[in-house]
Amino acid sequence: MYLHKLLKSILFLALIAILTACGNAHDSTNSDSSTKAETSESATKIIKTKRGDLEMPRHPQRIVTDGYLPELLVLGVKPVGSTQWDLENKVIQDQIDGIESTGERSLETIVQLKPDLIITWVSDEKILQQYEKIAPTLALPYSSSGDIYEIMRRLGDALDKKEEAEQWIKHLDKIAAEARAQLVDIMKPDDTFALMGVFVVDKGFYIYGDGGYRGGEAIYKHLQLKPPAKQEKEMIGKEAYRQVSYEVIPEYAGDYIFIDQGDLISEVWGESEGLWKSLDAVKNDRVYKLDPDLFWGNDPISLELQIKEIVNMLSQKQS
């Protein structure tokens, strides 16, 4: 009897061992399959840039940006770090909690943030090479990145946010179309609008084109306001800005003038202010002083607000 019970126990233990082995083998097979599934999609991808092919994370988790903070926020991407200059942009103050300041490109701070991707608008090779020692670096130089459509699409493509980029583009086009419709009953079709600015540091006077500076993209590309003939011929689609002497300013002046740093005219022009006051737009009270903090650049959030602000200024002046 004892022997019979012993044999039953041995057989039972053997069965347990076999089942356990089968189970482990099954788990191992599942684990292998799971691992293969996880690795079937590479952790990195290659994208083409103007500096050549860039291998970057397919799904970056810790991005540091130098120049494109509002763009990333619009795409639903919150970086771990950004330059202080970007963080001071007044139009994004409700969205920057938790983003670390990298100051004026502090390499030490960037290293501490352990980024898996750096996105920058600088073109200085020395800076780019420093960044590349820390993490893969996507460089979209501001001077060569084109208008906001190109910027958003290139970032959307790199970060697998194509749909978000296209949605925002449609949103901006709608805002611009509505704004243009509002201006139809306010402005005459042949009215011209100059975009100018002054600098205290060099006492210079500047004319701006339809690039990303001082609201040029909002005024000429999206609102489609007509520039003065000389400005249109020499600058639109060609130059973002140029410094000119006081004597030639009447040649660039339009029926209306948008002016950056307009409160500094007297300080900058001094004895030459009489020439400024002789312009028809000045005499007819058709000069609009731009908020330098809002009209500094052409990030997507500022651009939308610029379009609305320009329509607001023109509407108030005509009422």
Question: What is the average of the pLDDT values?
Answer: 84
Biggest pleated-sheet summary: 5 strands, parallel
E-strand count: 12
Order of strands across the main sheet: 5-4-3-6-7
Shape: elongated
Order of helices and strands: HEEEHEHEHEHEHHEEHHEHEHHHEH
* Main structural class: alpha/beta
CATH topology call of the largest domain: Rossmann fold
Count of helix runs? 14
CATH top level assignment of the largest domain: Alpha Beta
CATH superfamily of the largest domain: Nitrogenase molybdenum iron protein domain
Low-pLDDT runs of 5+ residues are: 1-40
User: How large, in whole angstroms, is the Cα Rg?
Assistant: 30 Å
Estimate percent helicity: 40-55%
The rounded distance between the terminal residues' Cα atoms is 111 Å
Q: How many separate domains?
A: 2
**In the CATH classification, which architecture of the largest domain applies?**
3-Layer(aba) Sandwich
Quick recap:
Helix 6 (148-158) runs antiparallel to helix 7, helix 7 packs parallel to helix 14 and helix 8 packs across helix 14 (300-318). By secondary structure, the chain is of the alpha/beta class.
